[in-house]
Specification:
469 residues, alpha/beta, Rossmann fold, Transcription Regulator spoIIAA, 4 domains, 5-stranded mixed beta barrel, 19 strands, binds 5'-deoxyadenosine
């Protein structure tokens, strides 16, 4: 695995951390004979995984060694998610379990960061009821980790920093690509959509795009290091470029990324249907590195629910995008996020969701039961739907999707696909093709991290094929 360090291209604010990096490194060296260990646990989305890669890059610069386990660690960090209650519950429990490590080793520094602690009520609970947590920081100040650790090592008892600004991006923060032959490149941060159920705009601030030169520089570094799949990240990649002093949008950025030399596949996440333009679909058609797959969350098939969700599209305009995409790329696959049991979702509303699932034929769905998020508009909407009803609908949705996914997979039999080989086990290679579909074929271990052309022979839960070169 290679370590990739981004160069300073735009923005600022990171230089001042260099001095803290040096000071922490000196203190750690003077205190301990062996290399100190850091354990980072990440919850939530790819954006959080990417943020953790930056935090890991900083920890390495300070002289820490990364460890998967909290046992024996000198620094433990939880990067949290707030999108659903379940994600938060796991964090309360898992941070609580760290108390015993702190008792055994008082010099251990315990930190929590990310979307969940960005909400003041959660940060306050950590401050009040988790006295063994040393450092608490929000979603926009991660680049200041060296300063926070320095302050703690210098005797400051507790540090809590939750500054949330609506402009500016700190460039030049090192990152450690722990994804092997897969890499993440954030292209924008924050969200301006304010979907009524969603906490993200409140915990990540307003939309801010990175300059295209900064994005391309990171893509080049990953491509040069041999990465085979690059995921462009943002809460709403389709609105990339807003507010930048360049003639750019996501469709144009995709073409720029595509022209970076190297044999790698481009993926992106996440798209809002309201901003998915024909120009973007044209780019996807023309860019040979772009996968033939679009993750386009529709959340609900009911226009009245979509309206209350503040999603700004309808079932019919969503279907128009799917048709426009298929017209340009006939073998395109689609995936989506769906929320079941939004406040007062009626049986007819839910039937519309099933109808949309049948009409499109998604290859996979990410399905969620609505989770009330305090501070969002939906949290105050009346809700007469019971938990049991929501559960029944959720199961019906899963069964419908299972049937549809089988159809999509059966349609692949006889086609030749290009598989990025991810894993090897007992004579079989497992990977993903350009449609984002899981493929298995008999092959050698050294294919891992490489592309292979495979002809699909049969379809079960996943596709099975034979390698042709
Ligand atoms: N309840 C359930 N699911 C949610 N999501 C976002 N907010 C909520 C919520 N309050 C889902 C959406 C989104 C995905 C990342 O998480 O489907 O697309
Ligand atoms: Fe969770 Fe959303 Fe934050 Fe990602 S951006 S970590 S999904 S709350």
């Amino acid at each position: 695995m290679k370590r990739v360090t981004a160069s300073v291209i735009s923005g600022g604010g990171f230089d001042e951390q260099q001095v803290y990096i040096k000071r922490v490194a000196e203190i750690l060296k003077s205190r301990k004979a062996e290399v100190p260990k850091a354990c980072v646990t990440t919850y939530g989305c790819q954006q959080n995984v990417s943020d953790s890669q930056h935090l890991k890059g900083l920890l390495l610069e300070m002289g820490y060694e990364l460890s998967d386990k909290p046992e024996g660690a000198d620094f433990i960090l939880f990067n949290t998610c707030a999108v659903r209650e379940h994600a938060e519950d796991r964090v309360w429990g898992n941070v609580g379990a760290m108390k015993k490590y702190k008792e055994k080793k008082p010099s251990l520094i315990l930190a929590v960061c990310g979307c969940m602690v960005q909400q003041k009520k959660n940060a306050d609970t950590f401050l009040k009821s988790y006295p063994y947590v040393d450092i608490i920081f929000g979603t926009q100040v991660g680049h200041r980790l060296p300063e926070f650790i320095y302050r703690r090592l210098s005797g400051e008892r507790r540090i809590c920093e939750l500054t949330l600004k609506n402009d500016g991006i700190t460039e030049g923060v090192p990152f450690y690509n722990d994804g092997g032959f897969k890499g993440f490149v954030p292209i924008m941060y924050g969200c301006d959509n304010f979907c009524s159920y969603c906490i993200v705009p409140y915990v990540r601030g307003r939309e801010r795009s990175r300059k295209s030169a900064a994005v391309i520089s990171d893509v080049k570094k990953l491509a040069d290091s041999g990465v085979k799949e690059i995921m462009l990240l943002g809460q709403n990649v389709n609105s990339y470029g807003k507010g930048l002093d360049e003639d750019i949008n996501f469709a144009k950025l995709l073409r720029m990324v595509n022209s970076v030399p190297g044999d790698f596949r481009i993926r992106f996440m996440t798209s809002n249907p309201k901003d998915c333009t024909d120009e973007l679909l044209d780019s996807m058609r023309d860019c040979e590195k772009a996968e033939h797959h679009l993750h386009l969350p529709f959340q609900s098939g009911s226009d009245s629910v979509l309206k209350r969700m503040n999603r700004k599209y309808t079932m019919s305009s969503y279907l128009d995008i799917i048709a426009a995409a298929r017209e340009r790329i006939p073998d395109m696959t689609f995936t989506s996020d769906i929320i079941v049991g939004f406040p007062d979702e009626s049986e007819e509303d839910f039937e519309k969701t099933l109808e949309l699932v049948r009409k499109v034929g998604f290859s996979a769905l990410f399905t969620f039961i609505y989770s009330k998020r305090e501070g969002t508009p939906a949290a105050t909407m009346p809700d007469a739907v019971t938990r049991e009803q929501k559960g029944v609908r959720f199961d019906r949705l899963l069964r419908t999707q299972e049937e549809m996914a089988k159809k999509v997979l059966r349609g692949m039999v006889g086609r030749t696909v290009r598989v990025l080989c991810e894993e090897y086990s007992n004579g079989f290679v497992f990977g993903k093709d350009e449609h984002g579909l899981n493929v298995k074929f008999s092959g050698k271990e050294d294919l891992t991290g490489n592309f292979a052309d495979v002809i699909i022979k049969s379809a079960g839960d996943i596709l099975t094929g034979e390698m042709i070169k």
